[in-house]
Amino acid sequence: MRELLPYIKLYKKHWFGLSLGMLLAFLTLAASIGLLTLSGWFLSAAAVAGLTIARETFNYMLPGAFVRGFAMGRTAGRWGERVVSHNATFKLLTDLRIFFFSKLAPLIPGRVSNLRDADLLNRLVADIDAMDHVYLRLVSPMVVGSLGIAGLTALICWFDTDLGLTLGAILFVLLLSWPVLFYKLGKRNGSELTQNKAELRVTTLDWLQGYSELTLFGAEERYRNAILNAQDRLLKNQMFNAHFAGLAQALLMLANGWTIALMLWLAADGVGGNMPDPMIALVVFATMASVELLMPIAGAFQHLGQTLTSARRLNDIILSEPDVQFPEQKVNHDEQYSIEYNSVSFQYPDSDAKVVKNINLHIPAKHRIAVVGQTGSGKSTLLQLLNRYWDVQQGEIKLAGQPISDWSESQLREAISVVSQRVDILNGSLRDNLLMASPEAEDSVLAATLTKVGLEKLLEDTGLDTWLGDGGRQLSGGEKRRIGIARALLHNAPILLLDEPTEGLDKQTEQQIMQLFEEHFESKTVLFITHRLVNLDKMDSICLIEQGEIVEHGSHQELISQRGRYYELNQTL
Fold first, then answer.
1. Those residues with Cβ within 8 angstroms of residue 262's Cβ, 6 or more apart along the chain or in another chain
2. Fewer beta carbons within 10 Å, N or C terminal of the chain?
């Protein structure tokens, strides 16, 4: 049960709504039991009175008024309890999603790099939704049931102590044993249900996202069968849950029937030492009404296994410590935005091989440097380290003369514009995808930037309201890349990091983009990653990296005159 502690702590913020919901649930339950108990006594007493002279003096009005009052109170209380408790639960789930996302964001990309997108989505949606069981199906029924049993016991004890204590003891035994029994029986199925629900989401998303490729390679049927298999397993889990819920309620009704028979036998000689009278009906109907105390509990704890599994899956994220910790205070620096790699070595988590080894590289402010090398040589890793996706294991990186670990996250993001190899397009409008780089930019600025990167065609028809679809499915690879370039231009930070910015573009567009960059490079510190040796003579310096180490460093003319490795690569063009 320790897995639930982080979520129960969130209840403090909504204690009033949750407590009010339990109070209304208790009052509703009291009205329901009072209605059935009083009705049983009233009908019996009225029947006895009708057969005797007491029919002329029997008070029909007062019990009838109480019966009607209990009926109206039960209806109003049930409505109020549903409104209050569900409103508090929805607010609690909202806070829980915000809390979960605040814990998830700092873990990207390090801690969650091995998790599938669909699995993260399942944790954010289904697993968090399962947390409402904690209050609605566990905490509230147990608290209300305990208070209800205590109240019903006190009521019967008012008339007959022995009968009251007997009924209370039976109900408390059921209250304590029933949850444990059905938790043990439903634990394994609940855990499997949660896992199979996550697997169904993952396989379905794989099939949807890769449908075109799966069809081309003849693998679509295999992936579709994986969905059907996951669905079958989930349906079996749900069927087991349904059968178990029915069994729990059937056994509870059987136990209630036996209890009624016992209480009727014990009360048959009279209640409270009196002769047999309508009070026997009161005791019997009170026992019959007690089933309402335990009915919510009967099937609740079979869901506890599912809830605990969801809590463990959420705790994998919530209780994880991010690999990179940003300070809250901004750092003071010289505002010259130089970059220094001092004896930097790095290897990715779960890998023994170093990606970059003992890198020493100084990039002065407003200097343009091209980092070249073959695929896998560690070029992109230098950019990722500068963005603090990960922290170095050895050495130090300085930005504007200050260690990069001293920069707050917002300050670091403001200082750097990035055009990465993978450009993520949000499922929104063209305007939405540009405003993330410059939220205050006007439409005229956005349109001018799109024209600069050669995307003026997108401004036709609906213009900036054009819907780009999930992942930018409406766009080609080159158009996505140019949207990434447009974002960098709009962000207009003093440091510009370019990771293969012209990859996937035709020659004419490449020349257009490079010319645009040359204009935009003015007064900026530029780190240009490429494996294509094009237009590098316009860079201030060139750094050649192979197998994670700097092989050569100098200007284009210097490296050509040395006739070393860079010269050889140029000769192969």
1. 166, 170
2. C
